[in-house]
Known about the structure:
Blueprint: E1 3-6, E2 12-16, H1 25-36, E3 46-48, E4 58-60
Parallel strand pairs: 3-4
Antiparallel strand pairs: 1-2
Amino acid sequence: NILAIVNFDRLFIFVLPRQEGSTYDSIVFDDTVERYGFGTPKGKYYLANTGYRYTNIILVLYRSVRYYLRK
């Protein structure tokens, strides 16, 4: 498993290729937060898919909902 985080310019700001085997996405993220002290600036969140659970720094999309960006 690899945890990769990109910014709004689509540049990788963090990559962690360390979890062996099969595990849940949220476990990988929680372990990374605990080991590396991850956080976000006030009022900012990480946007994640439904493989993650809601926390005070993760915003999870709804299942089976399509989101469209304005042009």
